[in-house]
Design goal:
Helix content: 25-40%
CATH topology of the largest domain: Immunoglobulin-like
CATH architecture of the largest domain: Sandwich
Strand content: 35-45%
Structural class: alpha+beta
Number of domains: 2
Order of helices and strands: HHHEEEEEEEEEEEEEEEEEHEHHH
């Protein structure tokens, strides 16, 4: 009730509405209320992400997935003999594996983008020259007599993560000989998949054996190499302008530009976590893979990653915006209706993310028939 001759006394509700506590509590309630549309948007982004992953998996299943090259590895079995506690002779066959003294992998990866629906999938076809030298082990590397070393069963294996993507492979050149590769990792079955070539009588023990072959390999996403040589040199080039160099080593030399990239790695055996020779299953494929390095072909603009970041930071966007409105109300003789807060909050939550998703779907759908994928 107002007083005579003076300003009217504000009601209790008006005093509460004009208080700072009311504005802070009301703003917090609106932020919590806006988590409902934010959750719906996050669910839509997750669905689109899963659909994209399924589309990428479908393309890579037919074209070729991420490629990791491990090898070559020389496998030589031998017979070990001993006497048991009763003095009876016993024997067993032991498999020993040897890595090359030097390894060089040089090549170029030509790239293209295929589409599955509205999604783009970067693919590559790498043309590689793989060469190096082995030091053929002598009898001192075996716990056997020289005549018990089974050189006629020796083989050379090369691990490839997705061998169905092999486009071409030349015969293996060993000094003056040429040996055709056969499917599968052969005696080095721990590699999982790849190629192998039988090497009966590879040469005189203790001498250097040079090797070389050409490999054309398709794939998608990542191309990596395991540094199995005592000295490994890898040189890769590609017209893809957005590479991501990853793995256990970064390139010692690199050049990245709009026309593509060139990168060179040099790795010594002193920096890896496996030896140059071992017996049977002392080293497995995961241990080799832990030392791999290479390059991943990134998409320069990932709409879904951008939207995921916007959703993660939405509390910051809402909080700073509403804080500015609250300070404006406290410092200026202007009052904003809660509905105005709500409209601004909905615009912050939905418009940037949903507009990007809708624009992506509309523009990509116009191009989905331009490719057989």
């Amino acid at each position: 009730m107002g007083q005579e001759g003076g300003a009217p006394t504000p009601s209790g509700f008006a005093r509460i509405r004009d208080s700072a506590l009311y504005r802070v509590v009301g703003t917090g309630f609106l932020v919590l209320l806006l988590q409902i549309p934010v959750g719906l948007i996050a669910h839509t982004i997750d669905e689109r992400r899963m659909t994209k992953d399924a589309a990428v998996a479908e393309v890579t299943r037919t074209w070729g997935g991420s490629q990791e090259l491990a090898g070559p590895i020389l496998t030589v079995p031998s017979i070990e003999r001993w006497l048991d506690v009763a003095g009876k002779p016993q024997q067993r066959t032991v498999v020993r594996r040897f890595l090359p003294r030097t390894l060089s992998v040089r090549g170029r990866a030509e790239t293209e983008v295929r589409r599955r629906g509205i999604f783009d999938v970067p693919l590559f076809v790498a043309q590689l020259r793989i060469e190096g030298t082995f030091m053929l082990p002598d009898a001192s590397r075996f716990a056997s007599r020289p005549e018990d070393i089974l050189w006629q069963r020796a083989s050379l294996s090369y691990g490839i993560a997705d061998p169905k993507a092999i486009r071409a492979c030349s015969p293996l050149s060993l000094d003056a000989r040429r040996v055709a590769f056969e499917p599968g990792p052969g005696a080095a079955d721990f590699l999982g998949s790849g190629l192998h070539a039988p090497l009966p009588g590879p040469g005189r023990p203790g001498t250097l054996l040079p090797f070389a072959f050409d490999l054309t390999l398709g794939g998608s996403g990542r191309l990596a190499v395991v540094p199995v040589g005592d000295e490994t040199v890898v040189a890769l080039a590609s017209p893809w302008p957005d590479p991501s160099f990853d793995g256990a080593w970064l390139p010692v030399e690199r050049r990245v530009g709009a026309e593509g990239f060139e990168a060179t790695w040099r790795v010594l055996d002193l920096g890896r976590n496996f030896p140059s020779s071992w017996v049977a299953a002392e080293v497995d494929r995961p241990r080799l893979s832990a030392a791999s390095f290479g390059v991943t072909l990134l998409s320069p603009v990932d709409t879904y990653r951008t939207n995921e970041r916007a959703v993660k930071y939405q509390l910051l966007f809402l909080g700073l915006t509403f804080l500015g409105f609250t300070l404006f109300e406290l410092l200026a003789p202007v009052r904003l209706h809660p509905f105005q807060y709500l409209l601004v909050g909905l615009a912050l939550c939905s418009c940037p993310s949903r507009s990007r998703l809708a624009f992506r779907a509309r523009t990509a759908s116009r191009l989905r028939w331009s490719s057989p994928w």
